[in-house]
Specification:
The protein is an alpha/beta fold and 307 residues long. It has ten helices and 14 strands.
Amino acid sequence: MRELLRPSRLAPGARVAVVAPSGPVPEERVQAGLDLLRGWDLDPVVAPHVLDRHGEFDYLAGTDADRAADLQAVWCDPSVDAVLCARGGYGAQRMVDLLDWEAMRAAGPKVFVGFSDITVLHQAFANRLGLVTLHGPAAAGVDFIKHARAQEHLKATLFAPERVRTLVSDGPALVAGRARGVTLGGCLSMLASDLGTPHAHDGARGGLLLIEDVGERAYRIDRMLTQLLRSGWLDGVTGIALGSWVKCGPYEEVRAVLVDRLGSLGVPVVEEFGFGHCEGALTIPFGVSAELDADAGTLTLDEPALR
């Protein structure tokens, strides 16, 4: 893992584009998200196919080609300063190979925000563009629309990232210690399913891994972590920060799996950092050097997420 290029922070009046690379989203939620962004003195625009629904598969926001075209068009638009995903769901894996990475690299760096299924794109942006991305709320997500903590933390990250360089855990250390590395991660199920694909990380060596998931039984979490362990993907990871495990309960079973599968790595592991599918989810950058202090329950970035 290596440090990646940090995009520039946003300023009042910045244009931000909303795209839907994965699942469909109701129009009223898109409008609610746009209203919040306008309240931050941003200029939000919506890509043409955000409200589309695939004709055959209702879990997709339009065709793969249209979803990819939306993302590429707004990324390559010089008037756009940031790209925010409307939601996660499923579908990023189907469209990521349709993107013209050379054209997107030539367009230069800008802010990219999303989580859940968007983990696939976080990995691709890191490996194809060498760019820091933000694992943060979906622009049309219920959490972003309804919870002030998610709104305020994302806003601070976008406009004044030096104010949010330290994340504090609400839980204990599962494995004590202190570690340094470059942040990476996202939704565990997506990291496992993306394993070995052209745009994914080869492994987490030298990285601080941040993982979470939603709606997965303990044995499935066991299976995914075991897959990452057996493949060697976790070899050389320096530390692990855990986010939310909503609807993955009972949590005591999930915690036991996390301790069993991750404890043998011999690196610090800390739970309950408040990112992911939980209420009021925090925004975290991927591709930034940081220190994890398991005893203090802190993850501290060496530099702000954005320049």
